[in-house]
TrEMBL record:
Sample GO molecular function, one term: metal ion binding
Binding site for Mg(2+): E41, D70
Quaternary structure and interacting proteins, as annotated: Homodimer.
Protein name listed in UniProt: dITP/XTP pyrophosphatase
SUPFAM superfamilies: ITPase-like
UniProt record similarity statement: Belongs to the HAM1 NTPase family.
Length: 207
């Protein structure tokens, strides 16, 4: 069976992608399967540029198709910040707790109607031959007043969805995987994915 390498060593993200790609006739590997592979510095000014940098580097380093993603949080009150700097918003080394604490500090006293935000994900699929396919997905919500929930990672405990009355971290992986920004980006890339690796999910109406 063919393999695709998801350009991440983050286990939470890896689980999410394995679920999102389930049904394709492909085995999903990650950077943990290639411990000697070094990722390039994320120098892009957009999520799409960084996703392409990662996918291209992995495809060249492994000789396998690679799926790179770059995603983050855009807070309207902060003019789109933290954006491409979401993972290291509070500095190095990257730390979810410190990132969330900094975000809450910057939004202290900001009224609810001005706490609108979105998660944005850009996906880049790069083949060993250099073919590149791009897709994006977004999820709209609000920044909660305090963290809630134990599931998920990153800013999930602060990202509140009014239609559910919960944060992403309170929804659980099954619901999150159906509506997240990564899920929507995968949906938008699905025509390419299902053409390259048709499987039992190729006719799924969700995709």
């Amino acid at each position: 069976m063919s393999r695709i390498v998801v350009a991440t060593g983050n286990e939470g993200k890896a689980r999410e992608f394995r679920e999102l790609l389930r049904g394709l006739d492909v085995v999903v590997a990650t950077l943990r399967d290639f411990p000697d592979l070094r990722m390039p510095e994320e120098t892009g000014q957009t999520f799409a540029e960084n996703a392409t940098l990662k996918a291209r580097s992995v495809a060249e380093g492994t000789g396998l198709p690679a799926l790179g993603d770059d995603s983050g949080l855009e807070v309207d009150f902060l003019n789109g910040a933290p954006g491409v700097y979401s993972a290291r918003f509070a500095g190095e080394p990257a730390d979810d707790w410190r990132n969330n604490a900094k975000l809450l500090q910057l939004l202290a006293g900001v009224p609810w109607e001005q706490r609108t935000a979105r998660f944005r994900c850009a996906l880049a699929l790069v083949t060993p031959g250099g073919d590149t396919y791009l897709a994006e997905g977004t999820l709209e919500g609000f920044i909660a007043l305090e963290p809630r929930g134990e599931c998920g990672f990153g800013y999930d405990p602060l990202f509140y969805l009014p239609e559910y009355g919960k944060t992403l971290a309170e929804l659980g992986e099954e619901i999150k995987n159906n509506l997240s920004h990564r899920a929507r980006a995968v949906q938008n890339l699905w025509p390419v994915l299902s053409r390259l690796w048709p499987g039992d999910k190729a006719g799924d109406t969700r995709y």
